Amino acid sequence: MNSALRVLTVLGGSLLLTLVAGWVVDLLLRRADARHPETPLWNLLRRCRRALLIVLFAALLRGAYRQIAWPPLHDHAAAVGRALSLTLIGAGAWLLVAVASAVVESGYARYATSTRDPARLRRVRTQVTLIMRVVTVLVAVIAVAAMLVTFPSFRALGTSVLASAGIIGIVAGVAAQSTLGNLFAGFQIAFGDMVRIGDTVVVAGEWGVVEDITLTFLAVRTWDERRITMPVSYFTTRPFENWSRGGIQMTGTVFLHCDHRAPVELMRDKAEEILHNCKEWDGRGWDLVVTETTPSTIVVRVIVTAKDPDDLWTARCAVREQLVAWLAQKHPYALPRIVLDPVSAPVPEQAPAPDAAGAARARPQAAG
Question: Could you give the domains of the chain?
Fold first, then answer.
């Protein structure tokens, strides 16, 4: 009974101290957040409370479990100590990543409130995202290495592993050539400012918005809500269109095939009227010209401008629809026609037959 009471005392005391320490830390963070509303850091740090409680509880048990005079615990003291150490290492890594994430998010939030350049915000957001992924991977690798060291067999294996590190490194580099290429391409994209989260790009004949960038792949959300996942090395080895680079204002074209009799001047006036009534047109410029002729039609090109790709698409559709409807209603002859009836060949003219008097006169002359 004395041993069981000591077990409950150690567990209960550790749990009580953990909850009290967590409550005190949370109280201090709430007060700091109330005193400094200009930064979200203190409120973001409150998200780390769960990881902090696990770290405190595991640390208290790791230091006090040997004081419990309980035979089953003494028989498995090494296993219990190793389990607590593994829990402490894992929770510590979780706490470290959570704190780093809170600090980075707070810095980005303060930077976002102080600048109004969307391109710069997307660039910083991309860099911050990749940095956090790198930090998470590094902390996870270190935590796993620290966990493995707690096992004596892995410590004994360490010498031989280090001795053959050169050969293993060469083999791993050859085997993971594609992965390492994507990894370095991710750093090149993040700090070379080639493409950012939120940029409008055209890749593989599809246009969409960059939704996520990791160390190995990049996700593009197309206009019809599909997701295209591509390796980041694609953007460092192949050309692609970045419509957000250097500003998101764009110029687009609308092509119409019309009959040769189409009233181009009237179409030009109608296009101007349509654009002035189109809220997606930004007013920077427009034009309507005949760019090509064919044996059956002419090609009319309308140039429109807009502040971003979405508005440009809407403005082009509006110009195309309204111009075609106006031509069909007011000038149907201007629409292209396809002639299906064959043209009949003309009948050759025949010489008139000679009359009877002419034939009689012709006979004496022929006889003389």
Answer: 2-114 (no CATH), 250-334 (3.30.70.100)
